[in-house]
Write a structure and sequence with these properties.
- By secondary structure, the chain is an alpha/beta fold.
- The chain has ten helices and 23 strands.
- Strand 22 (424-427) and strand 23 form a beta hairpin.
- The radius of gyration is 23 Å and the shape is globular.
Length: 453
């Protein structure tokens, strides 16, 4: 079975908005006499939009109408329509996700961007997509080296620790080039609230590049701490994004430092300090002179486009092939995930969810017939539709058992996935015996609240 999917990636960032269109090649890698093993085997970028400044209106709010018009124009430029799109992701990143109209923008873009392109946010997913889109994961897999990847954008820095090609930890700091915005003459037009206590200036002040270097150096010190190159101080926790709370960061020892994001383009190339109307070039210069670049480091194969390429090429995965689907209308969007075990299944309160959740059952390793039958009886008592996700290849057997207990209930069972509480899941129409999936975390904060999304 050979098939291709058209995927769209859209990144609405603090500074820039970009779109890519990709083709994903899907193949069955198993032999004719084996259980199908459907995998995404190739990714080809068909179209890259120009890098647009994210349109804002008064009060630094995202202009949803202009973004929608931008997307419409880029679809035309790419020669695609909504009906051509099979999968992908729309991501609102950095400080932009804190705007009070972010939810409306997400809804508008998701509605326009095809039947299965989804609205996504969240620092962990951003870190993963940026690390993949920048080639840091591929580099680690190819060389065997441990890589600590930093995607440094306008509002946040998304961090990922990669060991032998596997992302083992993510983190996010409020470090970015657009935390201070300025005119060409150096008059400050905006200071992010995350710099409270770290910036001695006020909006309206006129400053020189030299006056901003101490602030940039403070931000870089936090990056050095996250990379294990400087002893940690309270500064690191102060700049860690809100939803990460007091959790520890990644334990980084000896690693290649990898960079992407708009600021990465200012690390090795000298640029005018206020070229982009922010402190990005100053931050990039401070990074170049810091401990981050004293050892082995690399710029990503993609820098400013890393996240959008990750969204377009790496947001979609496939379920296992031993799946079960009966009477389900697909695609399904934004299903909340409820994590349980066979023993805790009865403790889940479905009233806590505004829509039927996908039950992610942990701990089922090679279950026997009696165990599946007992589990199916419990699941069949739930209000339909019944949606279950497993780690191991047992979804088809479990789905058949549920169908025997509740023959009229819509039921979907998938496997070979890893989910967490707080995740949301999009499930597309079948590709051969498997289902395309997008796993995401939707995080929308009100203006003035700090998140890493």
């Amino acid at each position: 079975m050979d098939k291709s999917l058209t995927s769209v990636g859209l990144d609405v960032g603090t500074t820039s908005t970009q779109l890519v269109v990709s083709r994903l090649q899907v193949q069955n890698r198993a032999s004719d006499f084996s259980v199908p093993d459907v995998q995404i085997t190739g990714r080809e970028i068909l179209y890259r939009s120009p890098v647009h400044f994210t349109p804002l209106v008064e009060g630094n709010l995202v202009d949803g109408e202009k973004i929608r018009a931008l997307v419409e124009q880029e679809y035309q430029n790419a020669g695609i329509s909504r009906g051509d799109v099979d999968t992908g992701a729309v991501i609102i990143t950095g400080e932009t996700s804190r705007k009070e109209n972010a939810e409306a923008v997400l809804s508008s873009l998701s509605d326009y961007a095809g039947e299965f392109v989804v609205a996504t946010a969240g620092p962990a997913l951003e870190s993963v997509l940026a690390a993949r889109g920048a080639g840091a994961v591929e580099y680690s897999a190819r060389t065997g080296e441990t890589v600590f990847h930093m995607d440094i954008g306008g509002g946040t820095s998304n961090l990922a620790l990669i060991e032998k090609g596997k992302i083992t930890c993510t983190d996010c700091l409020n470090v970015g080039g657009r935390l201070i915005k300025l005119t060409e003459q150096g008059r400050i037009t905006y200071i992010s609230p995350v710099l409270d206590g770290l910036c001695p200036f006020s909006e309206g002040d006129t400053v020189t590049p030299a006056a901003l270097f101490p602030i940039a150096e403070t931000l870089v010190q936090a990056l050095e701490m996250a990379a294990g190159l400087r002893e940690e101080t309270p500064l690191l926790q102060q700049l860690r994004t809100k939803e990460l709370g007091a959790q520890p960061g990644c334990r980084v020892q000896k690693a290649v430092i990898s960079f992407s994001g708009g600021v990465a383009d200012c690390i090795e190339t000298e640029k005018a300090p206020f070229l982009y109307g922010d402190m990005g070039p100053i931050l990039g210069k401070c990074i170049r002179n810091s401990r981050l670049c004293q050892g082995k480091y690399r710029l990503g194969s993609e820098t400013i486009r890393a996240t959008v390429i990750g969204a377009g090429c790496h947001s979609t995965q496939l379920s296992g092939s031993t799946v079960f689907c009966k009477n389900m209308a697909l695609p399904i969007k934004n299903c909340p995930v409820a994590v349980a075990t066979a023993d805790t299944l009865s403790q889940i309160s479905l009233s806590d969810y505004d829509r039927p959740p996908v039950l992610f059952l942990q701990g089922l390793h090679a279950p026997g017939y009696q165990q599946l039958k007992q589990l199916a009886m419990g699941l069949s008592r739930l209000p339909p539709p019944i949606m279950v996700a497993l780690e191991q290849d047992a979804a088809k057997a479990l789905g058949q058992a549920i169908s025997l207990c509740a023959p009229d209930a819509p039921c979907l069972c998938i496997d070979r996935v890893q989910l967490r509480d707080g995740d949301y899941l999009d499930i597309g129409t079948a590709v051969g015996p498997a289902f395309p999936l997008v796993i995401k975390t939707l995080i929308l904060e009100k203006e003035g609240e700090h998140s890493g999304a």
